[in-house]
Please model this.
Amino acid sequence: MDKPHFKLRFLFFPLGIVFFLCACATTTVIIPHDLSPAELIQRGQEAADRNRFNVALQYYGALRERNLDNIDLVITAEYEIAFIHYKQRDFVQARAGFNTVLEHFNSPDAELLPQQFRRLSEILLERIDETEQRLARIPSWLPFRF
Model:
């Protein structure tokens, strides 16, 4: 005896998988050129808060590229991009990004730059080092890493 609901499961399960995979696909955002830096930062933050990291990276990338003449905004964008990589546990890119932020503070005008990004970058670089040291102590025979 065929049960109709049993057949429906086999129909909806593959459709659910396709929907899930499409929802996780990379999204390219069209960013209006008339957005202010504050709006770019706000939209980037909203996307990051929703774990839409690819979208957030696009907003912060636009912030950086559209404001190359404003070092404060460049540092803000570079820090936020590095922080997203940190949240994604992509420590290689995060470390490179935080070091890029810190390089800006090697200039004669360093005291005029937004100091919070200097300290936050230093703290997060220390955390990356601690995490990598902790991971190095996990036996390689384990089937997974934390």
Observations:
- The mean pLDDT is 87.
- The helical segments are 4-23, 37-49, 53-66, 71-87, 91-103, 115-136.
- Residues 49 and 56 are 9 Å apart (CA to CA).
